[in-house]
Amino acid sequence: MKPTLPATLLHTLAPWRNAPAWHIAFSGGLDSTVLLHLLASLAKIENLPPVSAVHVHHGLQAAADAWPAHCQSVCDALGVPLRVMRVQVSPGASLERAAREARYQAFMQVMVAGEVLFTGQHRDDQAETLLFRLLRGAGVRGLASMPEHRPLAQGHLVRPLLAFSRSELEAYAHQHQLQWIEDPSNADPRFSRNYLRHRVFPTLTERWPQAITHLARTAEHMAEAQGLLDELALMDLQRADQPSTFPWLPLPSLALEPLRELSDARQRNALRHWLIPLTGLPDSDHWAGWHALRDAKGDAQPLWRLADGQMQRSGERIWWLPSTWSEFSDASVSWPDPQNPLELTGNGQLKFIGEAPEGPLVIRYRQGGEIIDVPGRGRRDLKRLLNESGMPGFVRGRLPLVYRGEQLLAVPSVAGAWARSVGEVQLDWLPQSCDQGLS
């Protein structure tokens, strides 16, 4: 006999029993109403973390204005605190996606470290997700569909109902005489998921009654396959994660040669894994940018533009530059008191270590043709000095140059490569979001 829904759910919840708090994403629909009732009922007989509900009001349709009151009445009856959050949905090509992003932004505002947010997606949702992504040409990661749990803000997002079908949730709701909201937009076939739910799946299940179960099982297989690919990626990235000669530079980077030794498929697998926390992943046709970056000549400075930044190559190393990397002002800045550190807008901090020269000084950025006096080497061209150091080209435009009048007085230098500055004074630059500076 199949275990009851509460018993199975309690087993699924076991890893999260020690969380500081549980939140339920409560739309008022069937799925979240069943989940809320289940957790509120279990909380009466089990020692569970504090349970509360969160209702996100998108304001996209007039009918939705009545939903917060309905959700409040349900929560009051169950003795569960409710928080209603109103969001603005940014217009875009996909209203579904924009609403989802706004909803999860609201959820992240609720989360505190270690807390758990439960959502009510079920087996039918999983099957729809798989088929939807299959039709979009997704790879293994996409076809793994919705994971049972994943990180969210400082806590965790958990989907404890994925093992159950919508019909099982309906049966539970009728058994306990639950009342839920029927969202009118769920019947609109203009939305892709609704089209699949109302037009495609009825036809599939008429011919193959177990289609939803089998598709959800395929998503499980894909999730397992993706886990193996992730393990392989970690092995390959471990070889490429060699220390940079610029430890002060606050950017993710990898050695290129260990990646070159891999097959093209393993390169893409490793880079997908590496890029996930950094940017939206490229589609299949966009990987030509990686090949151009990888195969460029050593003295070239190729780049590969992605959704949230770009990958650049300097010598035999690749670097990730987020979109925010270029958000700094290269206008001249006065430094009236060099005895104290100077905060550079969007470009970190500059300070002298030792007896600083008398001010006022001015910070400028490279224009080309700069000359500096180097103790023991005479007047040297700054470009040549930077070339000797091997400093990546994308850093050079941000390098703060310290002037007194028209004299280039000091430049942060690579330790041991060329002069620090006059005498024993050392100029230290701590780039944005970096723990170690360039001296």
TrEMBL record:
Instruction: Report the EC code(s) recorded for this entry.
Output: 6.3.4.19
Gene Ontology MF terms in the entry: tRNA(Ile)-lysidine synthase activity
Keyword Cytoplasm belongs to the record: yes
Q: Where in or outside the cell?
A: Cytoplasm
Span of domain Lysidine-tRNA(Ile) synthetase C-terminal = 361-429
Q: Where does ATP bind?
A: S27, G28, G29, L30, D31, S32
Q: Where is it mainly found?
A: cytoplasm
Query: Sorted alphabetically, which keywords does the UniProt record give?
Result: ATP-binding, Cytoplasm, Ligase, Nucleotide-binding, tRNA processing
Q: Does the keyword Cytoplasm apply?
A: yes
Catalytic activity of the protein: cytidine(34) in tRNA(Ile2) + L-lysine + ATP = lysidine(34) in tRNA(Ile2) + AMP + diphosphate + H(+)
The enzyme class is: ligase
Purpose of the protein: Ligates lysine onto the cytidine present at position 34 of the AUA codon-specific tRNA(Ile) that contains the anticodon CAU, in an ATP-dependent manner. Cytidine is converted to lysidine, thus changing the amino acid specificity of the tRNA from methionine to isoleucine.
Database matches in HAMAP family: tRNA_Ile_lys_synt (MF_01161)
Under the heading NCBIfam families, the entry gives: lysidine_TilS_C, lysidine_TilS_N
- Per the record, what about its domains? The N-terminal region contains the highly conserved SGGXDS motif, predicted to be a P-loop motif involved in ATP binding.
- Which family is this sequence assigned to? Belongs to the tRNA(Ile)-lysidine synthase family.
Per its record, how is this protein called by name? tRNA(Ile)-lysidine synthase
Q: Which organism is it from?
A: Pseudomonas lactis
Instruction: Give the lineage.
Output: Bacteria, Pseudomonadati, Pseudomonadota, Gammaproteobacteria, Pseudomonadales
State which gene encodes it: tilS
